Amino acid sequence: MHEAPTPDSLHVQDLVRQAFGWSESDDAESALQLQAALHGHRHWDAFQRKETLADVKIRLLKASKVVIIGAAVSAEDLYSYDENVVFVAADGAVGALSDYSQLACVVSDLDGANYLEHAAAHGQTIVVHAHGDNVDHWRKKIHSWNQFDTVPPLILSHQVNQIIPGMHNFGGFTDGDRALCFTLSLGVENEKIELVGFNLSRVGRWSGVTNGKKKIRKLEWMGRIVSELGFGHFISNEKTYS
To answer: What is the pTM of this model?
Structure first.
């Protein structure tokens, strides 16, 4: 049920690691540490995370349309959607929402700055992604979020070729394409999914502090994954992949 929608969306993770010189062992270590950090946690144990995932799945399947919000979105882009639409936000893109009434969850590797923090402080569900260089990020976030009056429900994701109980590899690489893989993995029909704010040529205003040139390289991988899944027509400045 909670598998990546295509084998390619998992295989691409190996290709990305090769392209950037990253280690799968570092990705695995981060994921295993996160799993251990939340073991038996009073808010975020494995049972509660399973319930959270089930709740999100029900909400997405019941929606008339699921709109995945990327970092290049503007608040105006979202005005035309009616109340039956449900949003899945990629990290800091959650900042484009005027309220969270239609937000199902935020998919994040935790560099979404204050926009992500604001959503977490208001009890919104976060799909927290572990990878090799965000250990400090997730440690700080789970510590601070645990202090909130309304603790945000969590789902955990990783990007390694092994089974980690209580965590999921939904496929994909960047927050945007991983949000698409996540949505597809829960059984949402392609026809019900729309992407907004996905752009290959510029770093979106809702992105956290980042290396611009490296980010553009990452966006190229995002474009490849989204296109291979059949949603390339939603990307601005789309490139062709062979």
So the answer is: 0.93
